Amino acid sequence: MADTWRSDCSPVTDCRPDEELQRSFVERAAKLLADAQAKDTVAIDVREVSGVTDYLLIGTVNSLAHVQGLVDQIRDLTAEYDIEPLSGVKRPTEVGWTLVDYGFVVVHLMTRSVREFYELEKLWFSGTRVYGDYER
Questions:
Q1: Measuring CA to CA, which residue among 70, 58, 42, 54 is closest to residue 133?
Q2: What is the H or E stretch that residue 131 is in?
Q3: 40 — alpha (psi -120 to 50), left (phi > 0) or beta?
Q4: Phi, psi (degrees; rounded to nearest 5) at 59
Q5: 131 closest CA partner among 47, 24, 48
Q6: pLDDT tens digits, residue range 85-132?
Q7: Is the CB of residue 131 less than 8 Å from the CB of residue 43?
Q8: CA dihedral angle for residue 127, residue 136, residue 21, residue 14, rounded to 10 degrees
Q9: For a tag on the chain, would you pick the N or C end, based on fewer CB atoms within 10 A?
Q10: Which of 3, 2, 20, 1 is nearest to 104 (CA)?
């Protein structure tokens, strides 16, 4: 089992886990998504360019069922670290974009068309890619 971190955070407090624990979680979560067939999975370190979060984790999904399965797997991983989402996890919808905010990392699960439209990797181009080699 991974080291744990108890989340008593809110959107206005800064009680993030230490950098080593963050990086461990982000790398494991990215690998989990990629292994579960989330296409073009990337993790971007945005600490130097964002005051809102430390990492973005982005993956392309095939369907609502795929999103729900990935959300469930991420939830299982967060349980190992004793991490809770800041605002709960909403059920995936037909919109094509599910976002789960854990404070230090924001997980974006998007359909191909939504991902191509918003191009988050280009928006956060000055961040450092820590997982994935997906290029547009």
A1: 42
A2: strand 128-131
A3: left
A4: -145, 150
A5: 24
A6: 887 666 666 688 999 999 999 999 999 999 999 999 888 989 999 998
A7: yes
A8: 50
A9: N
A10: 20
Q: Encode 52-68: b = buried (16+ Cβ within 10 Å), e = exposed.
A: ebbbbbbbbbeeeebbb
E strand or H helix at 42:
strand 39-45
Q: Look up residue 109 and give its two tokens.
A: 């699960």
pTM above 0.85, yes or no: no
SS3 state at 12: coil
Architecture of domain 19-25+37-130: 2-Layer Sandwich (3.30)
